[in-house]
Amino acid sequence: MVRLVSRTIFNEKDMMRKLFFGLLTALILAACSSDPVYHGMTPQQKEDYSKAIAGKYTGTYIIVYSDGRDDVKAVKVENSQMTITDQTMHSVCFHNYPVSQLSNVVTDPALAEALASAPNVDFQADYHFYDMQDNGDANWGFEPAAIPLTLHYGGADHHLVLKLNSQTYFLLSKADLDAGKPFANQSVFQFAVAGIYEGNTLLQDFDDFWQDNEFGYLIYFQLE
User: Fold this and answer.
1) Which pLDDT tens digit goes with each residue over 105-157?
2) Helix/strand/coil (H, E, C) string of the chain?
3) pLDDT (tens digit, 9 = 90+) per residue, 189-224?
4) What is the pTM for the complete model shown?
């Protein structure tokens, strides 16, 4: 009798344990099933989505910088332009970027003077579609690499490269794409100048923007 009762109690506990873990597993699966499900995009989907975002956009450059001495400053350049191509080139081009603003944070006086009079430049980056949800929302992003720049100072031409540090990712809503407003919910493109190079030589590095008494230079393109 004792053994029978003992076995019965064990079986009941075992059944309750199995039932508990079964319910727990069901709850976990139910929670997971509510999360977005992503999958790869076909070439045709990428082509269709690239056509939906292709075009010219107007916005404002917002340049935020610190020279390590004064308070953080901001410069706005309105009526700026950005062009996004279709899948043929899959690029984002920022037009008339005021590279001269870098002169505010460059420590080499000769380089700073040359930068101050430098004309605006265009630069571009490749973009990519990474994956999409079952509802048609797609992950999209771009990573600008560098801006080539030739300046004359110190009696010679200097072929410089402004290395950019940015990883900008957007979730493009299918509803916004269909409405012709692909960046309705995410309207800011952000990047930063990480350093100025001449060949393999680093002329100036830009440290963490939010550290005290450090040089920093952040750039935003705010869509109108």
Assistant:
1) 898 999 999 999 999 999 988 999 999 999 999 999 988 778 999 999 999 99
2) CHHHHHHHHHHHHHHHHHHHHHHHHHHHHHHHHHCCCEECCCHHHHHHHHHHHCEEEEEEEEEEEEECCCCCEEEEEEEEEEEECCCCCCEEEEEEECHHHHHHCCCCHHHHHHHHCCCCEEEEEEEEEEEEECCCCEEEEECCCEEEEEEEECCEEEEEEEEECCCEEEEECHHHHHCCCCCCCCCEEEEEEEEEEECCEEEEECCCCCCCCCEEEEEEEEEC
3) 888 888 999 999 999 987 654 444 455 678 889 998
4) 0.77
